[in-house]
Amino acid sequence: MLTFNAATTTAAGTYTVTIAGTSGSTTHFAMVNLTIIQAFTMTDSVVNGVGGTITSSASTVPYGGNVTYTITPDTGYTLTGLTDNGVNVSAIEGPAGTFTYSISNVTANHTVIATFAVAAATAVSALPPFGLSAAILIAAVLGYGRMSGIRKND
User: Collapsing DSSP states into helix, strand and coil, what is residue 110?
Assistant: First the structure.
């Protein structure tokens, strides 16, 4: 088994490597092509760890590869921000309130951070039934404006 270690700054590409081995008094040489494929780390997180989840399709991506993040707000929360390496980016809204964010042609490590907030409450109409004003309903409930001294004619 032969192991090669390349520096993290070594550019991707194909390199010719000469391997020498000695057996007794004879030295043998072999030339092989070594292809270095850089792999980049994909990191994701949620601000304060509350309000939803974010997951990537891969934790490492080869040079030139692609990765997609799926962002899912918890019930009662909405996605309010998304950054990629500190830069604000936009997610695409998908089915059932999920979002996706994709990176094509990866050439560096990426850290994608999602921010969630409590969703705004939905306004509900509070109009009284049958076209009555709220003042009349309140008066009726509280008993204001009772008529006194009036008798029904027999």
Answer: strand
